[in-house]
Amino acid sequence: MVENKNHMIVQIKKILGFLLIIGVISEMIFFPSIPNFYGCIMATISYIIFNYFFTPYYIKNFPFAFLMFLSMFLYRYLPLIATLAEGKPITYGFERPYDTFLFEIILFLISSLSFYIACKTTNTERNNVIQQTLLKLNFFQITPATLWGMGCIGLLVLVYNLSKGEIAYGDAGGKFLAGITYLMYAPLCLFFSELLNIKYSSKKKIWIYTILIIVISIASNKRTLIVTPIATIALLSMLFLIIKNKKITKFISPIKMIVIGVCLIAVLSLLSNLSLAMLHTRQSMLYDRETRHNADKMEAFKQTIETVQNEQLMNKLKAEKENTIDKKTNYAQGWTEDYVDNFMLARYANMRITDQTIYYAEKKGFANRQMQELFKNNIIALFPTPILKFLGIDLDKSSLEFSRGDYLFGSGLGGYRVTSHVGDGLATFGYWYFLIQAISFFLVFKLLNTFNYYNKNKIQYAPFALITLFTFLGMFKNGQGIIADFGYLIRGFLQGITTYLIIKYIIEISLKYISPKLLKNEHLNK
Q1: Sequential DSSP letters for 60-93
Q2: Is 398:169 a contact under the CB 8 Å cutoff?
Q3: Per residue in 378-387, is it b (16+ CB within 10 Å) or e — as a string?
Q4: Where are the domains of the chain?
Q5: How many beta carbons lie within 10 A of that of residue 151, not counting itself?
Q6: pLDDT tens by residue, 139-194
Q7: Nearest-angstrom CA–CA distance, 308 and 272
Q8: 3-class secondary-structure state, position 185
Q9: Cβ atoms 62, 462 nearer than 8 A
Q10: What is the per-residue pLDDT across 203-234, written as a single tens digit (0 to 9) for each?
Q11: Which burial class, exposed, middle or buried, applies to 317 when counting CB atoms under 10 A from its CB (0-12, 13-18, 19+)?
């Protein structure tokens, strides 16, 4: 596919380049320092490399691997823009700026190489064994009725889980149900049914359903559930416009673009207020680790809405947040995640977590034996308990109720302090980490590319992958570090496919007896 001047990609590249130039100039004018200059270099290198891969070819042929790579780019690009927008330098609160930027540049170069090799070795003219097997299992085929069935199941499971509370260790049924809540986003794919090579025109039904799941998500008092449907639709829109080579001005009129822009600003403002109101609700209802999940969800929802509507209270909460935010002057005083105030940007742009985890990694020691032992236990814990018992492996998974970030910090008493890939990797493997991470990224990218089935005239995208689109954008962010990649390789990939196919077959068998016509689907012409 040849890029043309009107293509959406060209416009996005120009916007990203313009923001980068403004960001570098502003950083050097308002916060001139050598460490900040290194931060600008990191952002510039990430933009140059990403610019090479940001083409219709990579997005059309490897869309799901590209989304993971996109998250890697955003983690190095956004800190410069986000901190400037809040009047801070890119090194805000840093204690190891040179190590942080150097290691992040090295890791991004390695990540980019892994992405390149994974795509280069993916034959777009001949599908591999995994793709051929998935095709035989009808993994790439779907009907609107099946998508709606999945949506209803996912929604019912969400409501059930919200009423049940936290899932305990050993609750296999609870974990299975928690693992299929993503199905409630299945009907959203019908907004862009062409990506599934099917026809569907009842868009009003999808809008009503979308509003319904957003309302229920708000009632859950969980910010991630609120953001996911909005982000899923946004990512589907981007892929549709790029893959189908649509001009955005033809797809959406200028007037509609203005309306959407205004609505987007309003939604982002609302999400920010909801996030603050939810945190206030949790505190006011005395949500601790035990009671938070047992509290009355409807009462929490009611109180959250009342808080958002109370302008005086919201202004007070915003002022308190600014005054009471945990702004430790150095890491020796304790853990802090103070970097970017916006909770959405903090997920993809908190570079201070890298700086902080490198600090603690140096303190604990690179290639630390305790971190290696924890890594081994984390790997073992990925396997189902029945398999471990069969193999004679005795591991109390409840003893691992803390994050790798929590253990790196020195607590290990329970909690979820996030960690960066670099900090966690160096603490666990030393400098061998970069090679280990390169191999794991390569394998993850290869697996993500199996969600495409290549034909001579078209590419079939797995409905499962389109439903979980937002998940791929979050596969590289501050969290559990390198163990997250091994978790996907060992369990996540196969488990996701298996549970999806089980639900799909159950729905299709049910529909076959209810109304066979619902299983018939009018496919688009090639």
Answers
A1: HHSHHHHHHHHHHHHHHHHHHHHHHHTT--TTTT
A2: yes
A3: beebbeeeee
A4: 144-324
A5: 23
A6: 999 999 999 999 999 999 888 877 765 555 455 566 677 778 899 999 999 999 99
A7: 10
A8: helix
A9: no
A10: 889 999 999 998 888 777 677 788 889 889 99
A11: middle
Rounded to a whole number, what is the distance in angstroms from the first to the last CA of the chain? Answer: 16
Cβ neighbours for 494, distance < 8 A, ≥ 6 positions apart: none
Residue 290: which of 395, 182, 180, 401 has the closest Cα? 401
Tokens of 423: 């900090």
In the chain, what's the furthest Cα-to-Cα distance? 70
| Residues contacting residue 106 through CB under 8 Å, at least 6 positions apart | 434
Mapped onto helix, strand or coil, the DSSP state of residue 390 is helix
User: Could you tell me the two tokens for 487?
Assistant: 């978790």
Nearest by Cα to 478 from 425, 436, 430:
425
Distance in angstroms (rounded) separating the CA atoms of residues 478 and 405? 10
Q: Is 513 exposed, middle or buried (0-12, 13-18, 19+ CB in 10 A)?
A: exposed
pLDDT digits (tens, 9 = 90+) for 326-372: 565 688 888 888 898 877 788 888 999 999 999 999 999 999 999 99
Phi first, then psi, for residue 473 (nearest 5°) are -70, -20
* Both tokens assigned to 51: 């610019």
| Tokens standing for residue 257 | 């673009």
Q: Distances in Å between the alpha carbon of 455 and those of 61, 250, 460?
A: 11, 28, 8
Predicted model pTM: 0.87
Give the HSE-up count for residue 503: Cα atoms under 13 Å, Cβ half-sphere: 28
Answer for the pair 331, 359: CB distance below 8 angstroms, yes or no: yes
Residue 185's Cβ-count burial label (10 Å; 0-12, 13-18, 19+) is buried
Which phi and psi (to 5°) does residue 17 adopt?
A: -65, -40
3-state secondary structure 480-526: ECHHHHHHHHHHHHHHHHHHHHHHHHHHHHHHHHHCHHHHCCCECCC
